[in-house]
Specification:
Elements (H helix, E strand, L loop, with lengths): L10 E10 L2 E11 L4 E5 L6 H8 L7 E6 L2 E2 L4 H6 L1 E4 L11 H11 L7 H7 L15 H14 L4 E5 L7 H16 L3 E5 L10 E4 L15
Parallel strand pairs: 3-8, 3-9, 6-7, 7-8
Antiparallel strand pairs: 1-2, 1-4, 4-5
Length: about 220
């Protein structure tokens, strides 16, 4: 059970550029991600991995270029595109006073999803024994597991993950890899940024240093 409708269209970025303030971070990024595809973003700190994820999540507007789904610009219906993605960033976005299961239930309700997969999500990331704990009792690794469990509790076709293995132990990483494999097998797509190599079969790699702006790529062109 995936919880999302399979979609044969390709998700694509077309000549995307990003700037933060007066700084152009990268330019001319193009890629395509079919159903079941995975894209791994690599690069040094400051190369733009997190920024590209935020552009794809529509949290940042591209300075140039566009995003497409099935050949149609996602800007034509942002609400529809946002319903197709889940973004897990650096921050776990967990309220210490809420319980573990309560956190997942709140998240699924916020997304307008059924809560039927909450227990499945807790089990997938080894959190069932701690389901009734307040989140303030969780370690950093357990908090990361809870943030990632949202991917199972409220399914979406496109996962955007920023350093998803941060604070995870070997068991947590194994569980994440299993979730990624199952998601892709069901036709889901993944874009993730990482400094740590992950064994993802048939994954594309995008090195952000390769898209550093040229010396003559002027901000006045944007």
């Amino acid at each position: 059970m995936t919880g999302f409708a399979a979609d044969a269209g390709v998700f694509a970025a077309e000549n995307v550029a990003c700037r933060r303030g007066d700084r152009l971070i990268f330019s001319n990024v193009s890629c395509g991600l079919p159903p079941g595809g995975a894209l791994v973003l690599t690069g040094a700190n400051g190369s733009g991995k997190s920024s590209l994820l935020r552009v794809i999540a529509t949290l940042l507007a591209p300075a140039r270029g566009r995003l497409l789904w099935g050949g149609a610009p996602v800007a034509a219906d942002l609400a529809l595109f946002r319903s197709r993605l889940l973004y897990v960033g650096h921050l776990d976005a967990i309220k210490p006073a809420l319980g573990v299961r309560e956190t997942l239930v709140s998240w699924t309700q916020l997304r307008g999803a059924a809560v039927s997969l909450v227990d499945t999500a807790l089990d997938a990331f080894g959190l069932e024994p701690r389901a009734d704990w307040p989140c303030r009792w969780l370690s950093a690794g357990q908090r990361r597991r809870l943030a990632l469990a949202r991917l199972i509790a409220s399914p979406a076709p496109l996962w955007l993950l920023d350093e998803p293995t941060a604070a995870l132990d070997s068991d947590g990483e194994r569980r994440l890899l299993a979730a990624l494999a199952a998601h892709r097998a069901a036709g889901g797509r993944v874009v993730l940024a990482t400094h740590q190599p992950l064994p993802l079969a048939d994954a594309q790699t995008l090195a952000l240093e390769d898209f550093a702006p040229a010396p003559d790529d002027s901000l006045t062109d944007f």
